[in-house]
Amino acid sequence: MELTTYVEPADFLTQTQAVLEQEETVNSLMLGIVVRLRDQPDFVESTPYLSAVLDDGRLVAAATMTPPYNVIVASDQPDYPAAFALVVDDLVANERSVPGVNGPVPLSASFAEIWSAVTGQPYTLQMHMRAFELQQVDHPPYPPGKLRLATSADKELLVQWVTAFGFEALHEPDQDLERAYQGVERALRHQNFFVWDDNGPVSLAGRARPTRRGITIGPVYTPPEFRHQGYATALVAALSQRLLDEGKQFVTLFTDLANPTSNSIYQKIGFRPVRDFIEYRFGQPGPP
Length: 288
Known about the structure:
Layout: E1 2-5, H1 9-20, H2 28-39, E2 49-55, E3 58-65, E4 71-74, H3 80-93, E5 100-104, H4 107-119, E6 123-134, E7 146-149, H5 155-168, H6 177-189, E8 193-197, E9 201-208, E10 214-221, H7 231-245, E11 250-256, H8 260-268, E12 272-282
Parallel strand pairs: 4-5, 10-11
Antiparallel strand pairs: 1-2, 2-3, 3-4, 5-12, 6-11, 6-12, 7-8, 8-9, 9-10
């Protein structure tokens, strides 16, 4: 096996894209991020990590990271642990700071075990997620209001909602307000944020990470005072239909399995489970 790292996202995609697209929904996070890096080079300020492990021309595994976010891992081969060992060794040798790992079960667990064995850093389960795919919308009863594109007039409110989403859904207690502003401004500039408007915005959904045939919905957030009225369900259903009408063959999203309500709601409008994911966070190494 041989590990190759890439400076240019286009070179990484040349090597990996055809294989990763064989399971496009499963690999939508990695594919979508790297496609965005290729098409929007200023999207991240830090230097991304892009690597692929090949064995006689066969793609064994791929790993990407856009600091300060986790490593994302992908593989459909049985010998992925040996490939992950090469990735870990490369990250350590180049002194890359790695906060955690995200990937399909059991890939992320394998990577976390190898990382911990090499670095001495413990790992803890941060979130258990499920990837869903929708090809046809089962339209729900729609509440009052309508889907609309978010505008700059919504910016201050959306920053509050994105910050709350990070705290509630992503379990990120330390929110970077400046990063939230930058993210909202970027989403508005690229017309990626939508709201359900019932005499004002009541729910938020974003579109993100387009791949060759699919696109992801996220984040999805409704503030507490507007919950249990069907707004988020309506927003996701209407936005999904819009994305399909614009030419995508399917829509994907990720849910936190600790939230049974969202898992149930999305399945009622046509999302079908594809694969479970686990995110692990790495801690500080213990005393020698």
